[in-house]
Design brief:
Number of strands: 6
Strand order of the largest sheet: 4-5-3-6
Low-confidence stretches: none
CATH class: Alpha Beta
Largest sheet: 4 strands, antiparallel
Number of domains: 1
CATH superfamily: Transposase IS200-like
Radius of gyration: 15 Å
CATH architecture: 2-Layer Sandwich
């Protein structure tokens, strides 16, 4: 992880987030859902000014790994990423999601988070990018 210098600070921040669709529905078995969700996450990261380092999916959850997120609280980031992706996915794929009986929301209420230090940042990126493959076998 590279440190970032701003007018009054110098350092690094990295965050691993995991979100689960409501009732752990396996909506990410479809590639179009994974691609659309990832695209919205990337767009939101750009809007927020955070680095979107990695993203991967299990059939019933997703992981994202962010860096340069010092200006945002964890709760704020989770709210932004879940809110934007939920709205977009329900608008674009409402007919497909109707089958899963998820109601008015896409994501479950909670989320997992873990801040990552300098040593574990590379490991988290590796985990998010490659280790999720086990869910598909």
């Amino acid at each position: 992880m590279k440190f970032v210098s701003s007018s009054h600070s110098y350092g690094g921040s990295a965050l691993h987030l995991q979100f689960t669709p409501k009732n752990r529905r396996k909506v990410f078995t479809k590639e179009f859902m994974r691609k659309a969700c990832r695209a919205k996450f990337e767009e939101k990261a750009l809007q927020l000014g955070v680095n979107f380092e990695a993203c991967d999916f299990g059939p019933d959850h997703c992981h994202i790994f962010l860096t340069r997120c010092k200006n945002h609280s964890i709760a704020n980031l989770a709210q932004h990423f879940k809110g934007a992706s939920s709205k977009q996915l329900r608008e674009d794929f409402g007919d497909f999601l109707e089958h899963y009986k998820m109601g008015d929301s896409f994501w479950s209420d909670g989320y997992f988070y873990e801040t990552c230090g300098n040593v574990s940042a590379e490991y988290r990126k590796y985990y998010v990018e490659r280790m999720q493959k086990k869910h598909w076998y």
